Amino acid sequence: MLYTIGLQYLPVTTYNLIGASQLGFNAVFSYFLNRQKFTPYIVNSLVLLTISSVLLVFQTDPGDSNKTTKNKYVIGFICTLAASAGYALMLSLTQLAFHKVIKKETLRAVIDMAIYQNMVATVIIVIGLFGSGQWRTLNREMEEYKSGKVSYVMNLIWTAISWEVFSVGCVGLIFKVSSLFSNVISILGLPVAPVLAVIFLHDELTGLKAVAMLLAMWGFVSYMYQHYLDDLETKEKKGSSIEGVSEVALVTERG
User: Which spans are transmembrane here (predicted)?
Assistant: First the structure.
Protein backbone atom coordinates (compact mmCIF):
# COMPACT_ATOMS: atom_id res chain seq x y z
CA MET A 1 0.00 0.00 0.00
CA LEU A 2 2.84 2.39 0.83
CA TYR A 3 4.49 1.57 -2.50
CA THR A 4 1.22 2.37 -4.29
CA ILE A 5 0.97 5.77 -2.61
CA GLY A 6 4.57 6.52 -3.52
CA LEU A 7 4.01 5.55 -7.15
CA GLN A 8 0.92 7.76 -7.28
CA TYR A 9 2.65 10.90 -5.98
CA LEU A 10 6.21 10.51 -7.30
CA PRO A 11 7.74 10.49 -10.78
CA VAL A 12 8.72 7.00 -11.91
CA THR A 13 12.44 7.79 -11.86
CA THR A 14 12.34 9.15 -8.30
CA TYR A 15 10.25 6.18 -7.22
CA ASN A 16 12.77 3.71 -8.68
CA LEU A 17 15.69 5.55 -7.07
CA ILE A 18 14.14 5.41 -3.60
CA GLY A 19 13.04 1.82 -4.16
CA ALA A 20 16.63 0.82 -4.85
CA SER A 21 17.46 1.72 -1.23
CA GLN A 22 15.61 -1.45 -0.26
CA LEU A 23 18.77 -3.50 -0.76
CA GLY A 24 20.75 -1.21 1.54
CA PHE A 25 18.12 -1.44 4.28
CA ASN A 26 18.09 -5.21 3.95
CA ALA A 27 21.88 -5.37 4.25
CA VAL A 28 21.75 -3.41 7.52
CA PHE A 29 18.91 -5.49 8.98
CA SER A 30 20.58 -8.74 7.89
CA TYR A 31 23.79 -7.74 9.64
CA PHE A 32 22.10 -7.01 12.98
CA LEU A 33 19.23 -9.53 12.97
CA ASN A 34 20.59 -12.46 10.94
CA ARG A 35 24.33 -12.14 11.54
CA GLN A 36 24.94 -11.90 7.82
CA LYS A 37 28.62 -12.22 6.90
CA PHE A 38 29.77 -9.61 4.39
CA THR A 39 32.64 -10.59 2.12
CA PRO A 40 34.19 -8.51 -0.69
CA TYR A 41 32.18 -10.49 -3.27
CA ILE A 42 28.88 -9.84 -1.48
CA VAL A 43 29.65 -6.13 -1.02
CA ASN A 44 30.61 -5.93 -4.71
CA SER A 45 27.31 -7.59 -5.61
CA LEU A 46 25.24 -5.17 -3.50
CA VAL A 47 27.00 -2.13 -4.96
CA LEU A 48 26.61 -3.31 -8.57
CA LEU A 49 22.93 -4.22 -8.15
CA THR A 50 22.18 -0.87 -6.52
CA ILE A 51 23.98 1.03 -9.29
CA SER A 52 22.16 -0.97 -11.97
CA SER A 53 18.83 0.02 -10.41
CA VAL A 54 19.82 3.67 -9.99
CA LEU A 55 20.88 3.85 -13.66
CA LEU A 56 17.25 3.36 -14.64
CA VAL A 57 16.53 6.74 -13.04
CA PHE A 58 18.28 8.44 -15.93
CA GLN A 59 16.06 6.68 -18.45
CA THR A 60 13.54 9.19 -19.78
CA ASP A 61 9.93 8.18 -19.25
CA PRO A 62 6.80 9.98 -20.50
CA GLY A 63 5.14 9.29 -17.16
CA ASP A 64 7.63 11.52 -15.38
CA SER A 65 5.94 14.64 -16.74
CA ASN A 66 3.19 14.39 -14.08
CA LYS A 67 3.43 17.30 -11.67
CA THR A 68 2.48 16.97 -8.03
CA THR A 69 2.28 19.45 -5.19
CA LYS A 70 5.09 19.71 -2.67
CA ASN A 71 3.00 18.12 0.09
CA LYS A 72 2.08 15.13 -2.06
CA TYR A 73 5.70 14.78 -3.15
CA VAL A 74 6.81 14.65 0.49
CA ILE A 75 4.09 12.11 1.30
CA GLY A 76 5.14 9.97 -1.67
CA PHE A 77 8.80 10.18 -0.68
CA ILE A 78 8.13 9.18 2.94
CA CYS A 79 5.77 6.35 1.95
CA THR A 80 8.20 4.87 -0.59
CA LEU A 81 11.13 5.11 1.82
CA ALA A 82 9.06 3.54 4.60
CA ALA A 83 7.91 0.79 2.24
CA SER A 84 11.50 -0.02 1.24
CA ALA A 85 12.63 -0.17 4.86
CA GLY A 86 9.54 -2.11 5.93
CA TYR A 87 9.88 -4.72 3.20
CA ALA A 88 13.58 -5.17 3.97
CA LEU A 89 12.76 -5.56 7.67
CA MET A 90 10.06 -8.11 6.85
CA LEU A 91 12.56 -10.24 4.91
CA SER A 92 15.05 -10.23 7.79
CA LEU A 93 12.33 -10.98 10.36
CA THR A 94 11.10 -13.86 8.19
CA GLN A 95 14.57 -15.40 8.22
CA LEU A 96 14.78 -14.84 11.97
CA ALA A 97 11.40 -16.54 12.45
CA PHE A 98 12.54 -19.57 10.45
CA HIS A 99 15.67 -19.98 12.57
CA LYS A 100 14.29 -19.09 16.02
CA VAL A 101 10.58 -19.96 15.97
CA ILE A 102 9.58 -22.43 13.24
CA LYS A 103 12.78 -24.48 13.14
CA LYS A 104 11.40 -26.82 10.45
CA GLU A 105 13.01 -27.51 7.08
CA THR A 106 9.87 -28.46 5.16
CA LEU A 107 7.95 -27.14 2.16
CA ARG A 108 4.89 -26.77 4.36
CA ALA A 109 6.75 -24.32 6.58
CA VAL A 110 7.54 -22.16 3.54
CA ILE A 111 3.95 -22.21 2.28
CA ASP A 112 2.55 -21.54 5.76
CA MET A 113 4.82 -18.52 6.19
CA ALA A 114 3.76 -17.12 2.80
CA ILE A 115 0.07 -17.70 3.60
CA TYR A 116 0.30 -16.00 7.00
CA GLN A 117 1.97 -12.92 5.53
CA ASN A 118 -0.57 -12.67 2.72
CA MET A 119 -3.51 -13.14 5.10
CA VAL A 120 -2.35 -10.24 7.26
CA ALA A 121 -1.81 -8.05 4.18
CA THR A 122 -5.24 -8.99 2.79
CA VAL A 123 -7.03 -8.14 6.04
CA ILE A 124 -5.31 -4.75 6.22
CA ILE A 125 -6.16 -3.93 2.59
CA VAL A 126 -9.81 -5.00 2.98
CA ILE A 127 -10.19 -2.87 6.11
CA GLY A 128 -8.69 0.10 4.27
CA LEU A 129 -10.87 -0.53 1.21
CA PHE A 130 -14.13 -0.51 3.16
CA GLY A 131 -13.00 2.09 5.68
CA SER A 132 -12.20 4.63 2.96
CA GLY A 133 -15.37 3.85 1.00
CA GLN A 134 -13.45 3.05 -2.19
CA TRP A 135 -15.31 -0.26 -2.54
CA ARG A 136 -18.23 1.76 -3.96
CA THR A 137 -16.16 2.74 -7.01
CA LEU A 138 -15.01 -0.79 -7.94
CA ASN A 139 -17.88 -1.39 -10.36
CA ARG A 140 -17.29 1.94 -12.12
CA GLU A 141 -13.57 1.22 -12.29
CA MET A 142 -14.29 -2.07 -14.05
CA GLU A 143 -16.69 -0.47 -16.53
CA GLU A 144 -14.27 2.35 -17.38
CA TYR A 145 -11.32 0.00 -17.95
CA LYS A 146 -10.13 0.65 -21.51
CA SER A 147 -9.60 -3.00 -22.47
CA GLY A 148 -13.01 -4.15 -21.19
CA LYS A 149 -14.41 -6.03 -18.21
CA VAL A 150 -12.99 -9.42 -19.20
CA SER A 151 -9.50 -7.97 -19.53
CA TYR A 152 -9.94 -6.23 -16.16
CA VAL A 153 -10.88 -9.46 -14.39
CA MET A 154 -8.14 -11.48 -16.11
CA ASN A 155 -5.62 -8.81 -15.17
CA LEU A 156 -6.63 -9.06 -11.51
CA ILE A 157 -6.57 -12.87 -11.51
CA TRP A 158 -3.17 -13.28 -13.16
CA THR A 159 -1.67 -10.45 -11.13
CA ALA A 160 -2.80 -12.20 -7.94
CA ILE A 161 -1.40 -15.54 -9.13
CA SER A 162 1.91 -13.95 -10.13
CA TRP A 163 2.29 -12.27 -6.74
CA GLU A 164 1.51 -15.54 -4.96
CA VAL A 165 4.23 -17.31 -6.95
CA PHE A 166 6.62 -14.45 -6.17
CA SER A 167 5.72 -14.60 -2.48
CA VAL A 168 6.32 -18.34 -2.18
CA GLY A 169 9.56 -18.06 -4.15
CA CYS A 170 10.75 -15.16 -2.01
CA VAL A 171 10.04 -16.98 1.26
CA GLY A 172 11.59 -20.14 -0.17
CA LEU A 173 14.84 -18.31 -0.94
CA ILE A 174 14.88 -16.90 2.58
CA PHE A 175 14.35 -20.40 3.94
CA LYS A 176 17.04 -22.08 1.82
CA VAL A 177 19.62 -19.27 1.61
CA SER A 178 19.05 -15.90 3.30
CA SER A 179 16.86 -12.80 3.26
CA LEU A 180 19.66 -10.84 1.59
CA PHE A 181 19.89 -13.34 -1.28
CA SER A 182 16.11 -13.21 -1.72
CA ASN A 183 16.30 -9.43 -2.00
CA VAL A 184 19.21 -9.67 -4.44
CA ILE A 185 17.04 -11.78 -6.76
CA SER A 186 14.21 -9.24 -6.46
CA ILE A 187 16.47 -6.29 -7.27
CA LEU A 188 17.96 -8.26 -10.17
CA GLY A 189 14.57 -8.08 -11.85
CA LEU A 190 14.56 -4.26 -12.05
CA PRO A 191 17.17 -3.88 -14.81
CA VAL A 192 16.24 -7.18 -16.46
CA ALA A 193 12.56 -6.22 -16.86
CA PRO A 194 13.21 -3.49 -19.49
CA VAL A 195 15.19 -6.00 -21.57
CA LEU A 196 12.31 -8.49 -21.40
CA ALA A 197 10.03 -5.66 -22.51
CA VAL A 198 12.24 -5.24 -25.58
CA ILE A 199 11.90 -8.93 -26.43
CA PHE A 200 8.19 -9.46 -25.78
CA LEU A 201 6.68 -5.96 -26.03
CA HIS A 202 9.01 -4.61 -28.75
CA ASP A 203 10.15 -1.75 -26.55
CA GLU A 204 13.22 0.28 -27.52
CA LEU A 205 16.55 -1.01 -26.18
CA THR A 206 18.80 1.85 -25.12
CA GLY A 207 22.43 1.72 -24.12
CA LEU A 208 21.48 2.64 -20.55
CA LYS A 209 19.18 -0.36 -20.24
CA ALA A 210 21.87 -2.67 -21.61
CA VAL A 211 24.51 -1.34 -19.20
CA ALA A 212 22.09 -1.66 -16.27
CA MET A 213 21.37 -5.28 -17.17
CA LEU A 214 25.07 -6.14 -17.53
CA LEU A 215 25.86 -4.59 -14.13
CA ALA A 216 22.98 -6.51 -12.57
CA MET A 217 24.19 -9.79 -14.06
CA TRP A 218 27.74 -9.03 -12.90
CA GLY A 219 26.49 -8.39 -9.37
CA PHE A 220 24.43 -11.59 -9.41
CA VAL A 221 27.40 -13.68 -10.59
CA SER A 222 29.55 -12.11 -7.86
CA TYR A 223 27.03 -13.13 -5.20
CA MET A 224 26.71 -16.66 -6.60
CA TYR A 225 30.50 -17.03 -6.68
CA GLN A 226 30.59 -16.27 -2.96
CA HIS A 227 28.04 -19.03 -2.39
CA TYR A 228 30.22 -21.37 -4.46
CA LEU A 229 33.19 -20.56 -2.21
CA ASP A 230 31.05 -21.11 0.89
CA ASP A 231 29.96 -24.52 -0.40
CA LEU A 232 33.56 -25.53 -1.07
CA GLU A 233 34.54 -24.47 2.45
CA THR A 234 31.64 -26.44 3.94
CA LYS A 235 32.55 -29.57 1.98
CA GLU A 236 36.20 -29.29 3.04
CA LYS A 237 35.19 -29.01 6.69
CA LYS A 238 32.92 -32.04 6.40
CA GLY A 239 35.69 -33.99 4.68
CA SER A 240 38.19 -33.06 7.37
CA SER A 241 35.79 -34.04 10.17
CA ILE A 242 35.09 -37.42 8.53
CA GLU A 243 38.81 -38.10 8.13
CA GLY A 244 39.38 -37.13 11.77
CA VAL A 245 36.68 -39.53 12.98
CA SER A 246 38.13 -42.32 10.82
CA GLU A 247 41.62 -41.79 12.22
CA VAL A 248 40.32 -41.82 15.80
CA ALA A 249 38.41 -45.03 15.15
CA LEU A 250 41.49 -46.64 13.57
CA VAL A 251 43.71 -45.69 16.51
CA THR A 252 41.10 -47.03 18.93
CA GLU A 253 40.94 -50.38 17.11
CA ARG A 254 44.74 -50.73 17.12
CA GLY A 255 44.90 -49.83 20.77
Answer: 12-34, 41-58, 73-98, 110-132, 152-175, 180-201, 207-225
